[in-house]
Amino acid sequence: MKTPDIQLPEGMLPRFGETPEQVAVALADAVAEVLETRLAQAPRASLVVSGGSTPLPFFKALSEKALDWQRVDILLADERWVAEDDPASNTQLVKAHLLQGKAAAANYLSLKQQGATPLEGLAAVKAELADLALPLDVLILGMGNDGHTASLFPDAPELAEAISADCPNRVAAATPPSQSQQRITLTWPALKDARFTALHLKGQDKLETLEQALANPSDVMAMPVRAFLQPGLNVFWSP
Ligand SMILES: O=C1O[C@H](COP(=O)(O)O)[C@@H](O)[C@H](O)[C@H]1O
């Protein structure tokens, strides 16, 4: 494969592959190694994943890893505020593709709780995450072509607070007019210090979006993914 023509800033780690499956296996290997190391040092480890279509082969590869899954807490970086049987539910996706096989023993913390809106359910979500230790151990982010990551959307009225270093909350409701469902998302203070962070991307369009984000890194309100484009970020990409 021709290496993609993109220059990542110094300190960001390119992990480019020829196929989505190859990259998914490389990402699963890396995540399993981090989790195994962490579980040797701590009673529990956390794994935050993203929804959407990109992570499916990664979920499958990771679910087959031999880890002490009972000591792993899995949650999403963001969720659509829909019932679990709705095809848009990221929880449904994680349960069907990641919490399978060996990984079925993991503990799942759901960002979708009772309530007609994410704002109504916020207190219950905070309670669900009350015992989750920060910093996170592993964070896998995706990215939309509008520059959103997690549910930190450029047009969400809640973005300024959720992406602020002073945001006092780990979770926030997100109601971007561009999206058909309301969302709930982990906030920047909860996400920013993960011990291992990967941006998992597929397709030429995502590479172009990443290039655009890198071209003007300071304007995080326009493209919230920019907040994560820091040294130490692992960028897993395939065509
Ligand atoms: O809406 C979302 O989309 C992004 C990317 O999804 P993909 O289908 O292009 O992989 C995802 O990272 C985010 O968690 C999700 O809520």
UniProtKB/TrEMBL annotation:
<dbReference type="InterPro" id="IPR039104">
    <property type="entry name" value="6PGL"/>
</dbReference>
<comment type="function">
    <text>Hydrolysis of 6-phosphogluconolactone to 6-phosphogluconate.</text>
</comment>
<protein>
    <recommendedName>
        <fullName>6-phosphogluconolactonase</fullName>
        <ecNumber>3.1.1.31</ecNumber>
    </recommendedName>
</protein>
<keyword id="KW-0378">Hydrolase</keyword>
<dbReference type="InterPro" id="IPR005900">
    <property type="entry name" value="6-phosphogluconolactonase_DevB"/>
</dbReference>
<feature type="domain" description="Glucosamine/galactosamine-6-phosphate isomerase">
    <location>
        <begin position="19"/>
        <end position="237"/>
    </location>
</feature>
<comment type="pathway">
    <text>Carbohydrate degradation; pentose phosphate pathway; D-ribulose 5-phosphate from D-glucose 6-phosphate (oxidative stage): step 2/3.</text>
</comment>
<dbReference type="GO" id="GO:0006098">
    <property type="term" value="P:pentose-phosphate shunt"/>
</dbReference>
<comment type="similarity">
    <text>Belongs to the glucosamine/galactosamine-6-phosphate isomerase family. 6-phosphogluconolactonase subfamily.</text>
</comment>
<dbReference type="InterPro" id="IPR006148">
    <property type="entry name" value="Glc/Gal-6P_isomerase"/>
</dbReference>
<dbReference type="GO" id="GO:0017057">
    <property type="term" value="F:6-phosphogluconolactonase activity"/>
</dbReference>
<dbReference type="InterPro" id="IPR037171">
    <property type="entry name" value="NagB/RpiA_transferase-like"/>
</dbReference>
<dbReference type="GO" id="GO:0005975">
    <property type="term" value="P:carbohydrate metabolic process"/>
</dbReference>
<dbReference type="Pfam" id="PF01182">
    <property type="entry name" value="Glucosamine_iso"/>
</dbReference>
